[in-house]
Structure prediction request, 311 residues.
Amino acid sequence: MDLNDLIARSRQNDGNAFRQLVEGHQSMVYSLAYRLLCNEEEARDAVQETFIKVWLNLKKFDTNRKFSTWVYAIAANLCYDTLKSSHHFSPSLPAETLHEALSDEDVEKKVLEAELGALITTLTNELTPKQKLVFTLSDLEDLPTEEIVQITGMTASQIKSNLFLARQALRKQLNTYRYGR
Amino acid sequence: MEDKLEQLIQSLKEAKPVLNHPESLTDSIMDRIGKKSEHKTTPLLIWVRTALSTAAVLLFGLFVFQQSEDVITTTAASVKPVIENKLEVDSTCMQMLGSEHLNYLETYLCYLQQNSIENKLNKSYPLQKN
Prediction:
C-alpha cells in the first residue's frame, strides 16, 4: 500500500493504516527530536506528541504537499517550543572529555564513541533555539533550503543568516575546546 | 579549522540517533490516539450541544424579560390607587339585597357606583333594570 492510500485510510480513522504511517516515519522524527533536544526521554515524548498532532490534524493536511515535510514541521515546532521552555534539560559533556575527543585526529571515531546527545549539546549550547533548529535541519538532517523554508516558515535569507551565525558559534566552541578553555 | 568543523559536522550527520524499542513507542502512540478518539465528539453531539445552549440562553432571556415586565406592571399599578370599597353588611347595597326583591344585578351596580364614588372616578353606573 502506498503512502497516499495510507493517508486516505488514516483520514477515515483506520488505526492500522495510521500505525503503518507511524512505523514508517517515527525514526525520522526521533532523529530530529534527539538532535534538537539531546535527551532521549524528551525526544520520545516529542515523537508521541508529533504523531498525536498528525492524527488530529490529518484531515487538514494538503495532499499536494510532501507528507514527511508536514510531519517534520510539526515535530520541529514542538521541539522548538521545548527548547525555548525553561523546563528543558539536556546533559552536556565535561570539558576534559570533549577536549580529548576533539583533539584526536580521528574525530569521527571519537564522535561515535562519545555520547552523541551530550556532544551536540555541549557544542551547540551557545546557539539560540532558532540557530540550533536551522543548523540541525540543514547540516545534520541534510534538508534542502526550500524544505527548511516550509518547515520553519522562515525566509531563505533568514535561514542563511541563522546558519552562518550557528556555524560561527560552533567554530568558536570548537576552537575553545580544542585549544583549551 | 574549517576542515575540522566540516569533519565534525559530517561525523555528527553520520552518527544517526538510534531509536530504542520502536515497537513500544508505536504502541504508546496508538494507545494515546485510541484514548483521544474515544473523546472525539460526533457531529450529532455537537449539534445537540449547540441547540441546548441556544435554548438555555433564550429561556434565560425570556426569564429576564418577564421579570422586567413584572416590575413595570407593579410600578404602574402602584402609581394608580385602587381603593376597594368593600361591601359591608350594613351598606346601602346590602340593604337593597335584604329587600323583598332579590336583584343581584342591582346590588352589583350599586356596589360599582359606591366604589367609583370612593375612587373619585366620577363614573356613573346607571341602574339597568331588566
In short: Chain A has ten helices and no strands.
